[in-house]
Structure formats: structure tokens, C-alpha cells
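--- STAGE predict ---
source: upstream dedup step, 1 unique chain passed
mode: sequence only
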Amino acid sequence: MRGYKNTETSMLPNDWVVKELKDINTYKNRTINPTLYKDEIFEYYSIPAYQNGEKPEFSKGSLIQSNKFLFDEGTVVFGKLNPRVEKVWRIGNISAHRKIGTTEWIAVKPNDEITTDFLYFLEWSVFVMPLAKTLVTGSTPSRQRVDPTSFYKIKIPIPPIIEQQRITYILNTIKKAIAIQEQIIQNTVEMKRSLMKYLFSEGVSGQKLKQSEVGLIPVNWNVKSLIEIVDFIDYGVSQAIPKQAPNNGIKIVSTADITKEGDLLYDQIRTIEVPQRTAQKLKLNDGDLLFNWRNSAELIGKSTIFHEQSEPHIFASFILRINCGERKSHNYFLKYLMNHYREEGVFIKLSRRAVNQANFNRNEISVLPIPVPPYQEQVEIAKLIGTVERKINHHKNKRDLFYDLFKTLLNDLVTGQRRVDKIDFRILSKEYEAVEAQLDLAAEI
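--- STAGE serialize ---
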């Protein structure tokens, strides 16, 4: 390739060099026992803090157990424990407090040949992340650790500083766009939760409220057991789903296919082989409500609506199919109510608890008291919540689009396959515009 050279990592531009991580690292391990500084506030980079939005904790030394690493601003840390769960963090300039972190990090503070941001993206790239996952010690996956000595021997490409800065500007911009979408999603999810709480107790018609066994509800609502307002409730097939798809299989919806937000992941549904009679009896129909009656405590009660597919589907044993019948009750009203109950912990309180499992079976859900508005109001409530849900899904799709762009450009730019000066930013700006979707609830009533 013209303008490229063959190196020990890959074909790279002629003005790029290759070095081992240890050659650009200026960090020397320094440990501290925070309990000796019990009143000092530390900026603490822990694994739980990383998993909670990459926000370091601010804690007194007296509350932090065991020795920790001392870090400097501009250091990049790589999570060595269980590297299948990917973790890379930039130590920033968040506060004037001393910065410390768990000894489960491998730290690299770059010299003047490479910027902190470029090193950060390199550690996510094909040059570091997949290779580091193979450089492990430990027998069980959850306890495996990346070997630091081997990690520091990983070879990385280093462009000129000016190109590093341009690459990281692009990648940081996309990450900010992803973060904006995440914030919009989080805000809208909170809005949906508040809206459901309001609608399931006060409705949309402005009626006076009355006290009932499910709390305050409008005076024109009733309270009935679930079985009174649906046609039937039945169990799925009790049979293990094979890892290898059978030749004559039928699609079977399992608990893993239902998200806690109430979506059904059609593209991951597996197949099973069952007698023809079972397949006919348990065949899902368009609009069926699926309720997860057995799962971990925080997931029990997640519910979704099945939409007819090009091939038949049945459902597994830990799912109840609730058929709402012809205008007896609105299926989406019930779906949102069930997911609202799950979020409010209703099913956890009512269920029978095992060690790590909670159960709320057909007999128990059949007598569950349900607030029942007039049918048309059920439709209006479902439309309002559905509007907010569509906004959430719109921004999830936008976030995923940005994330796909990020992964593509990360790989192309840090490998030199695509040069910064070859990117048409006008096309990117138009295609990946990060405009927030407008929400007009008044139009739905």
C-alpha cells in the first residue's frame, strides 16, 4: 500500500511507529493505606464506581479498606480482574483531592510521545483489548486476572501527536453524543415512571378519587381480579431449550428474551422441538401478553406483548400467556401496569421467595387486584405511555447508531486504515444529527 509500511502489528502509515506499552509508561506503582489518613477525602476510582457511570467516589480514608494505588491526573487504568467485563478509565482533573484506586487496575501514565486520550482509545482498540483478555492467570473466568508484565509488553501504534489529537477529538465528540443520548434516555425513563404512577392512580379524565384496595383511584374505576378481565391465563412448555437448534424446531420465547423495560428480543429467540399438539396448543397469537412469573426478585413480573411473526412461536414454562380477549381489557394497558408493578416492587412483596428466585404463579396472579378504568380510558392511558416509550426507543436507536459509528471509526482511525483528512464531516454531521425527539402528550388524549 502506497504510504504504508509493514510492521510487527499491522500495515501502518509510514510516519507511525510501534512501541510496547512499557516503553511509553512513566507510572510507578505507589500504594497508600487510606485508613492512616482517616479524615482526608480521597477521589476513589473503584470498580463499583466505574460500573456506576464512571464517576469516582469521594470518601474519607477511614471508610476505605486495604491498600490502594496512588494515581496522577492523565493516567489510564485497565481493569485486570475478569477482563471479559471490559473496563478502561481515564484519571481526570475532577478535584484537588488525592486520587486513589483499587489494585485491580493496571496503570499506564503516558510520556510525551502519546496523549492520554489516544492511549485511552488504544486500550479499547483491537491492539489491546482482545489481546489483554488472553493474557490471564486464574482458572475460573470470574477470577481471572490480566498479567501486568504481559500487558506492558503489548505493542501499540503511535501516530504523530497532531494526528493523535485529531483522532481523539473525533472519538471524544462521538462519545459525548452517546452520553447525551444516554442522558435523554435516562430522563425520559424517569418521566415514564412518574407518568405511569400518576395515570394508574388518577387516570386521564379528571374524575374525583376514591379509596380502594389498590389505593386511590378515580370514582368511575373498578377493582377486579385479573382473571375477571381477561379470557385465560396459561403456562408454557416445561422443557429445556437446547443450545444446538434442532432441525424441525419451533421458536420459543423464554424469560431471557424479555427485557425489564418490556421489549421482546425477537432476534435472539431460540428453537425447540415439541410434539405438534403442544405446538398448536401453545402457539402465540398477535397481542398476547407474556408475564414472567419466576425469576430473580428484581426481574419477576417483567411483561411484554407478542406481535405475530412470519413463523410460529410458543412460550417457555416460566412465562404465563395472558389472553385479553375481545375488548375485555386492553393488552397494552395491562402490559404497562404489570411493568409498573414490577418497578414498584409489588410482585416481590407478594411472591414466594427461594434462595435466588421469586415465584408468582398462575393461581396467584389470577386473583391479583387490578384497577380497571373504562375500556376507552385504558386505550388512552396506553397511548400516553406508548408515546413516551417511543421517544425512549428513538433515542436508544440513535445511541446505538452513534455507538456503531464509534466502533467503526475507533478501529479505522487507530489502525491508520482511515486518515482524519479523508473523513467528510458534512455527511457525518447530517447522518448522525443528535436532535432530541419532541414529545406531545396532549395530542394523544
